[in-house]
Request: fold
Amino acid sequence: MRLKDKNILITGSTRGIGLAIAHVCAGEGANIVIHGTNKEKVKDIVNSLQQRYQTKIVGFDYDIKNYDNCQNLVKDSINALTSLDVLVNNAGITRDNLLIKMTEQEWNDVIETNLNSVFSMTKAVTRPFLKQKSGKIINMSSVVGLMGNAGQANYAATKGGMIAFTKSIAKEFGAKGIQCNAIAPGFIKTDMIDTLPDDYLDTIIKSIPARKLGSTDDVSKLVLFLASDESSYITGQTISVDGGMNI
Ligand SMILES: NC(=O)c1ccc[n+]([C@@H]2O[C@H](COP(=O)([O-])OP(=O)(O)OC[C@H]3O[C@@H](n4cnc5c(N)ncnc54)[C@H](OP(=O)(O)O)[C@@H]3O)[C@@H](O)[C@H]2O)c1
Reply:
């Protein structure tokens, strides 16, 4: 059991990559905090994980666009599990549009959900992590944060920002036993990708050396490694899981 007795909070874990991370980590002995915006969905996921795994599974619904909600999510998680070892900043959205048509609302929604939440959540775990002299923060960035993408200026700005944030946190807290790394997935089969037109996806797949989309498990297994003691000398890195898309 690579994560036995570790306590892991995964934002946006009611579906997609976040849910896959919850399964992989619980299967390796971790206690898990499930999180999303929908109370019923959170409850259903908690119940189904509780039936499958022997570890402690709890869940909270909070909109992480709001700073205070993030502080409360961390507080509730620590109250429920007594401490936190790993924070996975995974929740994210897209509001794609060409810049010429992009509304201020589309820009702000993505910045608040994808980037402001990473600041708020990371700030909330900092004091407990400093006190226990350990903690791992894993930020779900994107290949788009490394390469940019037409029609995703808002999303790319958040994902690139997460990478710079990751490096800064690694430098600020490296000597205090806190690690911070980012993952840059390519195109992974989830609800987020389901919204893209088929012909656009076909073009994307042709540009990927592996010639296929990634699976949620491709990403969750890297999270498992980064959350485990095996990654103890890795910090400030952005690791791609993209079938070679960004080489
Ligand atoms: N799929 C890809 O190809 C891909 C590629 C690169 C990076 N990523 C990144 O990986 C992460 C997960 O992506 P995914 O494809 O698994 O997404 P997804 O299937 O759309 O799931 C998104 C998750 O985030 C939660 N969420 C969204 N807005 C929230 C908010 N304001 N407050 C709280 N929770 C919120 C959702 O909760 P609700 O169910 O309550 O809405 C859901 O659990 C994202 O950061 C995404 O940018 C994905």
User: Anything to note?
Assistant: Strands lie at 7-10, 31-36, 57-61, 86-89, 135-140, 178-185, 238-241. Residues 12-18, 36-38, 41, 63-65, 90-93, 113, 140, 142, 185, 187-188, 190-193 surround NAP (CB under 6 Å). The mean pLDDT is 98. The two ends are 34 Å apart (CA to CA).
